[in-house]
């Protein structure tokens, strides 16, 4: 019984650390000290280091969790009767997660962590789930038939880049950008 309690505590600590890290990285980027993340999580630094020996390992775990959540959401949406709204719901979720996720990926790349090698399989899995939703929406005539998953991924990438802006212009309005994307994807009736 005591072993189960230790395991449950370890799982709880890991989950609390990941949540605290996700919030800290979203606002403070790579510069957030690990001790600050441990403090926010309400655990000691030793607990953090037992779960995540480096800051890069913690970043990777946060990105992994976000990707896994998106994959699971896409898989759940595949069961929807109306595939068009299901596809757009996933796009809404991708955009909602884009801000902190992009910061984390940028930080990982800047920290010399090869995100593509470590998380590329998850990216491929998410793309496959998007393909299923797109195909189902096209079969129901909710989305243009001439759009490929490559087209959609390029549109999503462009939208996410626009949301972050750069030194030359301000970030775009996410809801307006999504509305334009929905309009462009919708099948002409």
From TrEMBL:
Q: Which UniProt keywords apply?
A: DNA-binding, Transcription, Transcription regulation
Residue ranges annotated as transmembrane are none
A single Pfam family it belongs to is TetR_C_43
Which species is this record about? Rugosimonospora africana
The record's GO molecular-function terms, alphabetically, read: DNA-binding transcription factor activity; transcription cis-regulatory region binding
Q: Name it.
A: TetR family transcriptional regulator
Name the DNA-binding stretches.
33-52
| InterPro entries, sorted | Homeodomain-like_sf, HTH-type_TetR-like_transc_reg, HTH_TetR, Tet_transcr_reg_TetR-rel_C_sf, TetR_SbtR-like_C
Q: Locate the HTH tetR-type domain: which residues?
A: 11-70
